[in-house]
Amino acid sequence: MSTAAEHRPAEAAPILRVEGLSARIAGQQVVEDVSFTVPATGITALLGRNGVGKTSTIKAIIGLIDRTGVVELAGERIEKEATFKIIQRGVGYVPEDREVFSGLTVAENLRLAERDASPRRQLVEELFPDLLARAGQMAGTLSGGQQQMVSLARALLNTNKILLVDEPTKGLAPKIVGEVADTLAEAAKTVPILLVEQNLHVVRQLAEGAVVLSGGRVVHTGRALDFLDDAGLIHRHLGVSTDAASHGDPVEKGAAL
Ligand SMILES: Nc1ncnc2c1ncn2[C@@H]1O[C@H](COP(=O)(O)OP(=O)(O)O)[C@@H](O)[C@H]1O
Ligand SMILES: [Mg+2]
């Protein structure tokens, strides 16, 4: 007789695998022996308090900071490659401070981001109708939420194997947070996303998996909802109460929301 394990469908190969990733910045160990995988579909959240190494982990993956360990994209080792090669392989990076070219128009910002021979302009126009209407506006005069949309649109113009999106809702008004989250949900139908996100309401809405960091190390991995529903884990690793996890209300100023 066969066992239940034999009947389990084979796990789809992850799009990104990180194994024993370590990185130092200015002599300080900021990423330490980090291992996790990102599935080939949906959104995986990278969580943790401020300063635990989320941004550094993303930068280490694409080689923006020196690191040791294994990084595998779609089954191929990439950790020896230069950043531009990793990006060319299909890694879209939306950095924390949503840098746009302030003195260029929205249309110019988008055109500059086109890397592929056939950029996905139609997808971007569908996902960001507001940007289409503002094509001629200087990006520096956009609101924070609109600049975030430009930043996401720039990454979505190209066909990527994965997007690395760092704190896209940081500092945005609640209504705009919802709009950015809805856009990410739509984007995730076309590309898997590793998402750094402090707003647990957004994590609950979007993420299937969660990887939690503390002090540069992975302290928890699993289903996002299992983590969000575990008051003890939330409190231990993020320093917020369960209420915050369900409603997205800040508990400790500057803590996790
Ligand atoms: N450019 C830098 N110079 C010195 N220390 C840095 C630099 N960038 C990050 N760090 C330190 O590395 C640690 C991890 O930072 P970071 O990856 O930005 O955390 P997170 O994104 O989780 O908030 C922190 O202690 C931070 O102070
Ligand atoms: Mg960060």
From TrEMBL:
Please name the Pfam families in this protein's record: ABC_tran
Q: Which UniProt keywords apply?
A: Amino-acid transport, ATP-binding, Nucleotide-binding, Transport
What residue intervals traverse the membrane? none
Q: Where is the ABC transporter domain?
A: 16-240
UniProt keyword Nucleotide-binding present: yes
In terms of superkingdom, the source organism counts as: Bacteria
GO MF assignments: ATP binding
Q: Does the keyword Lyase apply?
A: no
UniProt cross-references to PROSITE patterns, sorted A to Z: ABC_TRANSPORTER_1, ABC_TRANSPORTER_2
Q: What is this protein called?
A: ABC transporter ATP-binding protein
Organism placement in taxonomy: Bacteria, Bacillati, Actinomycetota, Actinomycetes, Micrococcales
